[in-house]
Design brief:
The chain is α/β, with parallel strands linked by helices and 499 residues long. Helix content is 35%, strand content 16%.
């Protein structure tokens, strides 16, 4: 082995997470005469600067020598702000190669990512799917901690490096494997399978859930506590189609860069996110330092459930308006702009008043009218106007709850959703404008729609959204043209907001 005092240079490939993708970075190391120590340049933040101490301790713990020279570490390109602890491993590898302590063959054909413990163990970092995608695109082999290898979704050559000491003989003998995440199989087998069969005496609400799932319409359920609103919402993923391969990779990528467990995504289950009403702006739409995706992006290709909607801060709720329309979040920061996908199905639930019993025949409401108006106004008219289905959920009959219901199951509802989407695909894409949609209505349906729209004082957005709901109902019933009954049912879901 060459002495650690040898003067040399070496460069290895690595990457950093920016938004929902990995950006390539080159770690260049130069050992030169001068006072021993490390200098990191290249727009590194405080976390990256701490790598000097971690790398130094890890080298000593694994029996290597810290170079008795001045080591300059450059992270290129210099204009890209570097953040994250994943630079530890590539810096250590480049230092060892530049000082002649490990074989250099094959090092430049790898993408090195990982954090180092003080004893030299390689620890995983968030964003494993993004790193794997970049390695595949660049034709490189991803080398990281065994726990940090992507479990599925990306075709990438991977090498597991448990400890820095395993590099004494180079990269040739590193095991190539793609392990399942620890405990994943156990969790998958232990998860309780939710089913709409468990929700008793709520067939009207179940019908609305089918419509929402079939046409990807937002839905707001309003009802007293204990009516089953949360049960209905949490079972929504069971009637949605399984994720296709592209959607699965997108969801895995988003969850990996956010450092979130993928749960059932690897099995094709749509993601389900249910943030608490105390969530911040950055928590909902993304942000922070470093900038990471928010809940709306984590719900991409899945369901975003907002329970107790009026309890959310008004300014937080209004942030949903643009993502619901554009299906992307655009954040502009001093270091640049970020674009996060967020094509989610919004499911919201709310009590009708602060005490929750307004309109409940079994429990009198104790709220003053002014408090009720103030409470309902927290949802915000502009946001509520963008939610297509508004459903009143009544308290179920105690007898039916005790005896058990025999209503629609998740399998039956999923068949309706699948049938509606297949019919819509066969029919062809629906028009975007309200007038073009209404042109596909039967004459009696068109007349009825005009009458109801005038009576409810519907605005342009409400007319267009109601027409789309009517088209979805027609797809469920396999109607080539929207009928009068389809229109009446669609209009029944717009009674709370008509702007």
């Amino acid at each position: 082995m060459a002495s650690a005092s040898r003067i040399g240079t070496f460069a290895v490939r690595t990457a950093m997470i920016r938004g929902v993708e990995a950006k390539p970075v080159t770690v260049e190391v130069s050992c030169s005469s001068g006072l021993p120590g490390y200098t990191i340049i290249g727009a590194a933040d405080a976390i990256v600067m701490e790598a000097k101490s971690r790398v130094s301790c890890a080298l000593n713990s694994c029996g290597y020598e810290n170079p008795r020279l001045h080591v300059t570490i450059n992270l290129a390109p210099g204009e890209l702000r570097k953040t994250g602890s994943g630079f530890d491993l590539p810096i250590a590898v480049a230092v060892l190669a530049a000082s002649g302590q490990i074989p250099t063959a094959g090092l430049d054909s790898c993408l090195w990512v990982g954090e180092l413990a003080l004893d030299g163990q390689v620890c995983p970092v968030r964003g494993e799917v993004a790193y794997a995608q970049l390695a595949h695109q660049e034709g490189l082999k991803l080398v990281t901690a065994p726990e940090g290898l992507p479990a599925s979704g990306v075709e990438c050559e991977c090498g597991a490096l448990p400890s820095l000491g395993r590099l004494r003989h180079g990269v040739a003998d590193l095991p190539e494997r793609r392990p399942l995440r620890k405990g994943m199989r156990k969790r998958a087998g232990a998860e309780k399978q939710l089913d709409y069969r468990d929700v008793c005496d709520q067939e009207v609400a179940k019908r609305a859930m089918v419509i929402a799932a079939a046409g990807r319409h937002g839905i707001l359920m309003v009802g007293p506590p204990g009516a089953g609103k949360t049960m209905l919402a949490r079972r929504m993923p069971t009637i949605l189609p399984k994720l296709d391969e592209q959607s699965k990779v997108e969801a895995l990528l988003i969850h990996s860069v956010a450092g979130q467990a993928p749960l059932g995504i690897e099995r094709g289950e749509p993601p389900f996110r249910s943030p608490h009403h105390s969530i911040s702006n950055a928590g909902l739409i993304g942000g922070g330092r470093p900038v990471i995706p928010g809940e709306v992006t984590l719900a991409h290709n899945g369901v975003l459930f907002l329970d107790e909607l009026p309890e959310f801060a008004s300014n937080v709720l209004q942030l949903l308006r643009q993502p619901m329309e554009d299906h992307v979040v655009r954040l502009v920061r001093s270091e640049g702009s970020y674009v996060f996908p967020c094509d989610f199905l919004l499911v919201a639930a709310a009590n009708p008043c602060p005490c929750g019993h307004l309109g409940d025949p079994g429990h009198p409401c104790t709220c003053q009218p002014a408090r009720v108006d103030s409470y309902q106004a927290r949802m915000g008219g502009p946001l509520a106007n963008r939610i297509d289905l508004h459903v009143d959920v009544a308290r179920p009959s105690s007898d039916k709850v005790i005896k058990g219901g025999s209503g629609m199951s998740s399998a039956e509802m999923a068949d309706l959703v699948t049938g509606a989407r297949e019919f819509a695909a066969h029919r062809g894409p629906a028009a975007d404008s309200a007038s073009a949609l209404v042109a596909t209505f039967e004459e009696s349906a068109r007349t009825t729609f005009q009458t109801v729209a005038a009576r409810l004082h519907m605005g342009g957005r409400s007319i267009a959204r109601t027409a789309r709901v009517a088209r979805t109902i027609a797809d469920i019933e396999h109607h080539d043209k929207v009928t009068k009954d389809d229109v009446i049912e669609a209009c029944s879901y717009r009674g709370r907001t008509n702007g």
